[in-house]
Amino acid sequence: MSNNLGAEVIDVVQGAGEHIQYVTVMIGGQLFGLPISRVHDVFVPEQVTRVPLAPREVEGVLNLRGRIVTAINMRRRLQLPPLEDTKDIMAVGIEHKGESFGLVIDTVGEVLNLPKREQEANPSNLDKRWAEISGGVHRLSGQLMVIIDVDRLLSSLIEPKAA
Amino acid sequence: MDELLSEFLTETNESLDVVDVELVKFEQEPNNAKILNNIFRLVHTIKGTCGFLGLPRLEALAHASETLMGKFRDGATVTPEAVTLVLTTIDRIKEILAELEASGGQEPQGEDRDLIDKLEFLSENAVMAEAPAAAAPASGGQSIERPLRPGEVSLEELERAFQEAEVEEVKPVVAANSNDADHDHDHDHEHETKVNTSAAGSGKSVSSQSIRVAVDTLEDLMTMVSELVLTRNQLLEISRRQEESEFKVPLQRLSNVTAELQEGVMKTRMQPIGSAWQKLPRIVRDLQQDLNKTIELDMQGADTELDRQVLELIKDPLTHMIRNSADHGLETTPERIAAGKPEKGKITLSAYHEGGHILIEVADDGRGLNLDGIKAKALKNGLVTEAELEKMSDPQIQKFIFAAGFSTASSVTSVSGRGVGMDVVRTNVEQIGGTIDLRSVQGKGTTFTIKIPLTLAIVSSLIVEVSGDRFAIPQLSVVELVRVHNNSEHRIERIKDRPVLRLRNKLLPLVHMSTLLGFDDHEEELDADNGFIVVMQVGSHTYGVVVDGVFHTEEIVVKPMSSMLRNLDMFSGNTILGDGSVIMIIDPNGVAAAMASDASSGMVDNSVDAIAEKSMAVSEEDGKVSLLLFRAGTHEPKAVPLSLVTRLEEFDVAQIERSNGRDLVQYRGTLMPLVYVNETASHKDEGTQPMLVFSDSGRSMGLVVDEIVDIVEDRLNIEVVSERPGVLGSAVIKEKATEVLDLGHYLPLAFEDWFMRKQIESADPIREILFVDDSSFFRNMLTPVLKAAGYDVTVCASAEEALETLSQGITFGAVVTDIEMPEINGYDFCEAVRRDPKNRHLPIIALSAVVTPASIEKGRQAGFDDYVAKFDRPGLIAALKDALTGEMGVAA
């Protein structure tokens, strides 16, 4: 087992039997996994400034230790109804092309170490909006974990505007 | 590239820039030995270094120009051609240097024989001219009375020795040289002291007190300081909330140090604006020759400092403006003499600080802006209507030169006037948060003023509240704040739902920030007692933005927007405030743009072109027609289909003439009769009178109305048919009962024979026509037209009805049918008619709002003889005439 290996190393090494660590999060009752190598930190989004005229997925901007972070409401991105009780919400900090983003999710779970070969492709009937950002599915005991492809997620929000 | 070479490149480029400037100065003062020395030294250094680094091309060029300058120093007359040649050589050297840099140290292939030959030729000739000069008392006491002989050390070597040696060491070197130079000692001594002073003079600027620092290092430093400032602000905010704290004092100290540090770092990024001006004397000099004008460039405040980032951005606009002033602003020498001005045109460039901003002025004493030219151009470009122009003040008109694609130069010269003039300058200036303004007096000159922030990184901003959120507005664009009071003079008023404010002697257009930001509609709250109006100025536009509250001003560090939000034009960036929250920085340019588009979407656009364009757009698919709404006589709106209107015009009432019992107005070289919608209503005695112009076959009539209200797209259903002449009936347009005018009634009022003429033209024996159209409007509209053209018209409201009429055995000369009809459309109807053998040759004309090659082809296949656009009345009459005479031919 290579539990003690840095996540970055795992990400780079391409081979059989390798494992990827995921930070699991809950969004609207569904378990999602984010590769730990991409997760910068986990924080409680406070004092979020809404940005008028912004895409609806953008929750707003906030100050995280002197950096301006763009918060993305994952429920809205996944077309889920908004969370009623927002007092416990969390955000996962992500770095993408030198900028900071925060994915606002319901709750953060644990860190799972999963073998890459157990990863399965998206089921063909997956909702199109979900399939766009999903990098595959893991069958865990009792539930399924959808892998969030961070690059695809952020590019899907940035690029259509840049064009 | 090795370090030595890169150092050489930087240094040489700097030296060349100096040489450029100095040469121009030297041309004006050929006797100033100090300038010449300086040039000489620089060129010589370049030559020396090139030799050392093994760059033969550069060395040869530098050598040749050095030789020529040596002749100047020996007393040869300085001619403009010679200076031009040296300048050209400098340019060539720069080109080679650029290629050298690009290729990483490889000197480009090529020959400079052309330049070198010329330089050598001039050098030789200069020697001839030298004789009389040398005979005269030695100029500046440093000319050698004869050309150098081999083995002699030229003065330039001496000079270099002086420059490089310590001042104290100069004497022995000179002494050593003077021995073999065999010169008058006194003479040499005089020379030596001169050099000493100049060396000391220039020694200060090139002292060992300064070091080169990479720009990146400074940028990083600036970023760090910006972060520090933010943290400081946060700490201060925290301490403000705590009554007594032991942190207070050290925090105050930290605050002061941070402020000083910020200032210090800012200073390192500061550069004198003169460095952006360096190229200008040279440009002006070249322009003088190109344009054949004599121009004096006066530069003031060259040591005014501003952020290098801003400096870079302002360079090109400034150059462009100088070119503009020289080319368009200043008159030619004969013109100046004729105008009683000094022969030499003057361009003054000045820079100074004013309250955290830097002001740069470019002034010329030329002819001033040509107001008439600008007016004509503005009209031609459709920026403004003649009526609007009348009301504009001269400064307002002058500002049109900042509009896109505006160049007043009647001809394009190589210098400027390519139509990408001042608007580009304006855009560049606005990009860095600056503003540009101008003053111009005809015959006296023009002054452009650019106001730019000292730095881009830290902006003083006004924090405002809108719908519960805070936003920052850059202070630079804020002119003033106005408190709104319902019962005071500062009261928001409305013109057709658009809020405006009377501010002193002006009307200020307003917009609520929450509307711009797409928050819930705030319109009804706009009248509320509380609220502030932030009066903002962007370029020549002044407007008011209504906000809910105004807090304070704060120095904020602009941080770029996330790439996800960068497409929002309304914000220029965001920042972290002292209390730690993030706020968005409003971009005044974005607001101005949003206001402009907001206004035009609701505006009655009565420019001729727009009308012409709109009249094409009759969207028949959903039965909607473009209608022109206006008021005349009564209060109820009246409407005519826009497509029938040729033009909207406004006339000065004074222009209306009365002749033969009729009102006429001169219009495009002919007299146009005016018809009043409501004869009994009182007519205006002054001001302008709007009217709708209808033109047909070269004749025009003006239908006088009181007010043009709007252009709307709506379904036209005449619900109540009118008995009154001139009114077809009433329809609901924009949720209001509107009278639809019957133009067929008004047209003959202007020309009694309006329809008669066509009657005479069309002398067709069979005059019975069947006209099929499901729209009652078009039936009402076209029936009178057809009748007036001399046809007996049978009207059917549907294809079914028409088929039934046809089967009753009445002989029609032709059938005119609409295409877009419910149930049986025109194509099917046509085929149905053709199925009856006796109708096989019956001319059938299609009428359609949609005339495309495809639809015409489809019509042809269905069996139509002709296909006419619905509003093409002359076309319809002509088609009918053709069809009927054609039919006659077949029958005969």
How is this structure best summarized?
The complex is a heterodimer of chains A (about 160) and B (about 900). Chain A has about 160 residues and is of the alpha+beta class. Chain A has one domain (about 5-160): CheA-289, Domain 4 (OB fold (Dihydrolipoamide Acetyltransferase, E2P)), CATH 2.40.50.180.
Q: Explain this structure to me?
A:
The complex is a heterodimer of chains A (163) and B (892). With 163 residues, chain A is an alpha+beta fold. Helices cover 17% and strands 42% of the residues of chain A. Chain A is built from four helices and ten strands, in the order αβββββαβββαββα. In chain A, strands 8-1-2-10-9 form a five-stranded mixed sheet. In chain A, a hairpin with a 2-residue loop joins strand 4 and strand 5. The longest helix of chain A has 13 residues. Chain B folds into six domains: 145 residues, Four Helix Bundle (Hemerythrin (Met), subunit A) (Up-down Bundle), CATH 1.20.120; 56 residues, Helix Hairpins, CATH 1.10.287; 180 residues, Heat Shock Protein 90, CATH 3.30.565; 141 residues, Beta Barrel (OB fold (Dihydrolipoamide Acetyltransferase, E2P)); 143 residues, OB fold (Dihydrolipoamide Acetyltransferase, E2P), CATH 2.40.50; 136 residues, Rossmann fold, CATH 3.40.50. Chain B is built from 28 helices and 35 strands. In chain B, the strands form seven sheets. Chain B has a six-stranded mixed sheet. Chain B has a six-stranded mixed sheet with strand order 27-19-20-30-29-28, covered by helices on one side. In chain B, strands 21-25-26-24-23-22 form a six-stranded mixed sheet. The N and C termini of chain B lie far apart (95 Å). Classes of the chains: A alpha+beta (163), B alpha+beta (892). At the A-B interface, strand 4, strand 5 and helix 4 of A face helix 9, strand 17 and strand 18 of B.
